[in-house]
């Protein structure tokens, strides 16, 4: 595929015509065919036909391409060009893992992904869970495709609610030790307590506001500031253990409070200079976006979420000169990101609006644990692990020591991740433990199970030499074998599609397909009882390739592929 597309690119580059691979691979008279459609960007039919001719008359490797068929389209049917491939070369390239590498095109482009981004005072909720796992896979796919990627977590540690948090810590009389031991839970308790007390005691809200004002204006005592940094540090430490379970690692931790004082003043001046800052009667200052007036400065002079986000975006532009930046944040913040992108773009035109992407997602309903409504992510993952352990203990096929927490944890996390990523991200969905943890059907447990089967098959047949197999397509003619080959052939295009649409479900559903066709092939294509040793080799090579792709795909999704369960 790459050999052909590299050639076509030479011709198409200087025209208004573009081309795309139609279907991953189709078979015509049992032979593999790659079909590209050729379309015009406001260009005439003649121009398309000219390109079609030029593409068809290029010289291709005769070992690879047996025949080229240009098909002129008309009206609604697009023009196409079909490449009939030589079966031997095709099968050989699919089964040779080094040929299977994904074509990398624009590796110099820098993509920044900001995801997870929980708040220190408030608990990590399911919205943050979704952001974390969706952001992780999208960043991984870009990385796999050769882009330069930065994975960033932007912690919320600023705003009046943090004044409340501080008051809460005092009310709770939480010691430093207690906070260090269980930062997320303790700080949450403090926050809840302050909110509750504030209902009866109006001085609490005042105190919180004053506290935050001092912090923001830089007049807080060094001890308080130190304490503040400690909360952040403890929280990051605890978060990291959860991220580790989810297969997530960040390159960069930033936080909102980085953007106070100096940055904000610069933003306000720039807005002023471009006449974008409008005063309101009540002393607030606003920007106008889509005829809505959105505040950036409160009447007491303190800044808002949006103001800090503008400062942060300008700063990120300086630091990364990104090609694109992706914010993986729930649907509910759509207006915020509209305002952020439009305002920043007006401030600095080189940060073109096309570089700024809000990757939205819907809600999960009904996600609760035996403890009650899920508040802490850790509880949720623990519950997945415990339920998995119970299932493992009951299952007759379990091969590992069921007391081993690790396997149950990996399975539980796989279930939670796949259950989330298998639908389009903007859809809201209802969470069900039974569905998520199923062994059969489209679940994370199923993917792990297929991976384990392939692993043990390869282990049992280690004695079969897979080096220098002279590929012969006749050894893989059963429909089950052809199915798996087809799935293997689709993989690179699946990654590009998932990247284009920013949809992890494209990869997830592909892996279900790969896993299903592999399971069927495992039943129908035995190795031990096959007497033809060439067939044995080919089958094993086929399963090895399928396993390689399954493993890589699972890892891109944040799963840790198991060898035994
Ligand atoms: N901390 C925010 C929240 O929990 C999400 C931050 C999203 N990112 C951003 N740059 N605004 O709602």
TrEMBL record:
<feature type="domain" description="DALR anticodon binding">
    <location>
        <begin position="447"/>
        <end position="565"/>
    </location>
</feature>
<keyword id="KW-0067">ATP-binding</keyword>
<keyword id="KW-0547">Nucleotide-binding</keyword>
<comment type="function">
    <text>Catalyzes the attachment of arginine to tRNA(Arg) in a two-step reaction: arginine is first activated by ATP to form Arg-AMP and then transferred to the acceptor end of tRNA(Arg).</text>
</comment>
<dbReference type="InterPro" id="IPR001278">
    <property type="entry name" value="Arg-tRNA-ligase"/>
</dbReference>
<dbReference type="Pfam" id="PF05746">
    <property type="entry name" value="DALR_1"/>
</dbReference>
<dbReference type="InterPro" id="IPR008909">
    <property type="entry name" value="DALR_anticod-bd"/>
</dbReference>
<dbReference type="InterPro" id="IPR001412">
    <property type="entry name" value="aa-tRNA-synth_I_CS"/>
</dbReference>
<dbReference type="InterPro" id="IPR014729">
    <property type="entry name" value="Rossmann-like_a/b/a_fold"/>
</dbReference>
<comment type="similarity">
    <text>Belongs to the class-I aminoacyl-tRNA synthetase family.</text>
</comment>
<dbReference type="GO" id="GO:0016874">
    <property type="term" value="F:ligase activity"/>
</dbReference>
<keyword id="KW-0030">Aminoacyl-tRNA synthetase</keyword>
<keyword id="KW-0436">Ligase</keyword>
<dbReference type="InterPro" id="IPR009080">
    <property type="entry name" value="tRNAsynth_Ia_anticodon-bd"/>
</dbReference>
<keyword id="KW-0648">Protein biosynthesis</keyword>
<dbReference type="InterPro" id="IPR035684">
    <property type="entry name" value="ArgRS_core"/>
</dbReference>
<dbReference type="Pfam" id="PF00750">
    <property type="entry name" value="tRNA-synt_1d"/>
</dbReference>
<protein>
    <recommendedName>
        <fullName>Probable arginine--tRNA ligase, mitochondrial</fullName>
        <ecNumber>6.1.1.19</ecNumber>
    </recommendedName>
</protein>
